[in-house]
Write a structure and sequence with these properties.
Number of helices: 10
CATH topology: Rossmann fold
Largest sheet: 10 strands, mixed
Pfam families: RsmJ
CATH architecture: 3-Layer(aba) Sandwich
CATH superfamily: Vaccinia Virus protein VP39
Helix content: 25-40%
Family: Belongs to the RlmJ family.
Structural class: alpha/beta
Distance between the termini: 41 Å
Function: Specifically methylates the adenine in position 2030 of 23S rRNA.
Shape: globular
Number of strands: 16
InterPro entries: RlmJ, SAM-dependent_MTases_sf
Catalytic activity: adenosine(2030) in 23S rRNA + S-adenosyl-L-methionine = N(6)-methyladenosine(2030) in 23S rRNA + S-adenosyl-L-homocysteine + H(+)
């Protein structure tokens, strides 16, 4: 929908999760010398002013980058993200927040390529103007590109359609970020269909999908539907900063779903997510969840054990908790814990594509921050 303007939400807790994860993915991609392509299907304006205009109206940055601005105890990976944001604010005052195109531009190397798409006419123009000014500033400083070809291309257009033309990339390395506004419930379907097509064209790419965690059915079912896509592996992380109100209004939780995630991402999230909950959490409902799984294909409905033998899940799958190290995860089709006959109960036959999930969730240990309503 062309009515959506991300400037109203710039720098909020969802942006913190999205851009922190995005930067970790760039860091992983940078480990190899071979160039890669970054594709942003819904780029926005690229940079947002926090001290006026849309962002100042709701001041949502106070739920995200604001509480992190003066912190000196952050995990290194999170501190690197905050340093990138501070690089856009040389005065030290928090005035501007970078969107995903700016984060990519700063995290990527000269030989890498950015392909940015935005449908909203005003945001597409601002995005193009921002990168034009960056190029003009670099030229005024005597900087000349050493790699052949245009490093950054900005296009007012449909990012979903662009995936069909850009994948697979020439270097056979790509990171794709997909984060539509989801104001139209059809966005959930469009994301899933775009990924199905993209994985068929380029099954080894890294695909990062941001999504809101809402009470509407499309949102509740979204992550589970993405787990069924034909990717080798997946990782899902959500951050909740407060308990949703009874009216369901407002964004209290969001997620990043990664197809073909790097092996470095999950350990990093296990370090950083408890800290984000501690600092950004507003009440006892603040929490995080990390899930990961390996995609299985074929007609078999069983799961494969470590020794290669087929097995079926029985009882409760265990999950780790940052607070107690205990807990349980009910598998699809299983009866809830305590239900007669629940132990070993197996539900309907699984679809042809299934996964074996690992799950971590909980709140951080340690004292609550001042003013927190957390017990």
């Amino acid at each position: 929908m062309l009515s959506y303007r991300h400037a109203f939400h710039a720098g909020n807790h969802a942006d913190v999760l999205k851009h922190f994860v995005q930067i970790q993915l760039h860091e992983y991609m940078n480990q190899k010398d071979t160039a890669y392509t970054y594709i942003d299907t819904h780029s926005g304006a690229g940079v947002y002013a926090l001290d006026g205009g849309y962002a100042a109206k709701n001041a949502e940055y106070e739920t995200g980058i604001g509480p992190l601005w003066e912190r000196s105890d952050m995990p290194k990976q999170l501190a690197d993200y905050v340093s990138l944001v501070k690089g856009l604010n040389p005065s030290g005052k928090m005035r501007y927040y970078p969107g995903s195109p700016y984060c990519a531009d700063k995290a990527m190397r000269e030989q890498d390529r950015l392909r940015l798409f935005e449908l909203h006419p005003a945001d597409a123009k601002i995005l193009a103007d921002n990168f034009r000014k960056v190029a003009e500033h670099a030229a005024a400083q005597g900087e000349r590109p050493t790699a052949r070809g245009k490093r950054v291309l900005v296009e007012r257009g449909d990012g979903f359609h662009a995936l069909k033309t850009l994948l697979p990339p020439p270097s056979r390395r790509a990171l794709v970020l997909i984060d539509p506004p989801y104001e139209d419930k059809q966005d959930y379907r469009k994301v899933r269909e775009a990924l199905e097509d993209a994985l068929g064209r380029f099954p080894t790419g890294i695909f990062a999908i941001w999504y809101p965690v809402l009470q509407r059915m499309e949102s509740r079912q979204f992550a589970d539907k993405l787990k069924r896509l034909a990717a080798k592996e997946w990782l899902n992380v959500t951050l909740t900063v407060s308990t949703p109100g009874p009216d369901g209004f407002g964004l209290h939780s969001s997620g990043m779903f990664i197809l073909n995630p790097p092996y470095t991402l999950e350990p990093t999230l296990r370090q950083v997510m408890p800290y984000l909950v501690q600092v950004l959490g507003k009440d006892a409902g603040a929490t995080f969840v990390i899930e990961s799984g390996t995609q299985l294909t074929g007609s078999s409905t069983s799961r494969v054990g470590a020794n290669g033998s087929a097995r079926v899940p029985v009882g409760n799958a265990r999950r780790a908790s940052p607070t107690s190290g205990t807990g349980s995860l009910r598998l699809p089709g299983q009866a809830p814990a305590g239900t007669p006959g629940a132990a070993g109960a197996i539900g309907p036959r699984a679809p042809a594509s299934t996964s074996s999930p690992r799950r971590t969730s909980g709140r951080p240990t340690g004292p609550s921050k001042p003013g927190s309503r957390r017990p």
